[in-house]
Amino acid sequence: MNDFTASNGHEILIEEERVRVIDAGGANVLDLFDYFDQSDMQALREFFQAEADERLGRWRSAKNPVWTAVVQDGSGVVLFRHDDGQREFSVESRETQLHRWSPELREVAREYFDAHPEPKPWHEAEADEIWRLTVNGVESAWVRRPEVWERISDGFLLRNAPVSKGITDGRRIFPEVAS
Length: 179
Fold this sequence. Notes:
By secondary structure, this protein is α+β, with helices and mostly antiparallel strands. The protein folds into 3 domains: about 5-55, no CATH class; about 60-115, no CATH class; about 120-175. Helices cover about 20% and strands about 30% of the residues. It is built from 3 helices and 12 strands; from the N terminus they run E-E-E-H-H-E-E-E-E-H-E-E-E-E-E. It has helices at about 30, 40-55, 105-115, and strands spanning about 5, 10-15, 20, 60, 65-70, 80, 90, 130-135, 140-145, 150-155, 155-160, 165-175.
């Protein structure tokens, strides 16, 4: 796991075989004191929890951290579980009728889906494919290169546009999609 920032603003920095705890004011805690106070311990607890979540493939709610979620065996079913071990619920798709659930469960599910947007067709674009993309409200032709998209304008490639975040719609135009 890489560097980590806890909810109280403390940073846990991993440096080869050492770990440093930096408080919210930017001071190295162990340079100032020879012990950890409660806020340092809270930061370390959150760090080790995040490390375990990463190892186990769990997502944890930032707004309500007693809730975790995992996708079950490639089925697309998302299982949400409360840390108390007594409550859990599952969602088969984004279209599930969330209105039937309590406000707490709806908020946790929405937070999860906001953090895991559905993949769009252009996310799977391969090198040298040509797509008609809508980028920042403007539709034009683009070619996919190994690391970037390049816009085609009057037969020229414009190499200055990192567009991934601005794409709102797209369809592949070459090679043609087989029906």
